[in-house]
Amino acid sequence: MSIADLRKDYSRASLSESDANPDPIEQFSKWFGEAIAAQVPEANAMTVSTATAEGRPSSRILLIKDFDQRGFTFFTNYESRKGQELDRNPFAALLFYWIELERQVRIEGGVERITDAENDAYYNSRPVKSRLGAIASAQSRPIANREALEARVLEVEQQYGDHPVRPSHWGGYRLVPDYLEFWQGRPSRLHDRIAYRRQADGSWQLQRLQP
């Protein structure tokens, strides 16, 4: 079978304008809860896309750590590639893909750093090994080999023990959405797409998009 012949018809569910919550954050919360309830593997995994100041994009998978009416929060090394790109071009796009439910959610908006207090609270809730790794890894920078990385982790562990302190180069970003799109797979590629655009007064405009 050729790659061009690989396809699946979607028929699990539908999404109409009347089904969609007027508040896209509430709609996301509903779908996210259903993904958790359905035991979708790593339902909190999302693609995070950033771009350079010149517009060259890059994407990677991260885990969402919080969301509310303020936006969607994730954590990383501020000096990583994504961190440097966000410093120069503070906009990003998120993509959740829950294939078991035949759904995806696209989220776009500006990005801002969260507070030190929020950073410390989350950092201190992480397993010790993860906290040590955040200190040891100069994310996105070259390293000679795996052994060098492991040696660096051991060095940090000997220095901090079970009480590592959050490094200043590690913390969270909050994407403040101005666009969300909910996609429900349907038969014959006639998918349901419900989009929300933030208006100047802060309200949301809901509209159906053609597939």
Q: Can you lay out the helices and strands and say which pair or pack?
A:
Layout: H1 24-37, E1 45-51, E2 57-63, E3 66-68, E4 71-77, H2 81-88, E5 91-98, E6 103-113, H3 116-125, H4 128-136, H5 146-160, E7 170-184, E8 192-198, E9 204-209
Antiparallel strand pairs: 1-2, 1-5, 3-4, 4-7, 5-6, 6-7, 7-8, 8-9
Protein described:
- It is a single chain.
- This protein is an alpha+beta fold and 211 residues long.
- It has a single domain (3-122, 167-209), classed as Roll (Pnp Oxidase, Chain A).
- Helices cover 27% and strands 34% of the residues.
- It has helices at 24-37, 81-88, 116-125, 128-136, 146-160, and strands spanning 45-51, 57-63, 66-68, 71-77, 91-98, 103-113, 170-184, 192-198, 204-209.
- Strands 1, 2, 3, 4, 5, 6, 7, 8 and 9 form a 9-stranded antiparallel beta sheet that branches.
- α4 crosses α5 (146-160).
- It starts with 23 loop residues before the first helix and ends with a strand.
Count of spatially separate domains = 1
CATH topology category name: Pnp Oxidase, Chain A
Could you tell me the mean pLDDT? Answer: 97
Shape: globular
Query: Biggest sheet: strands, sense, closure?
Result: 9 strands, antiparallel
CATH 2nd-level architecture: Roll
How many E strands?
9
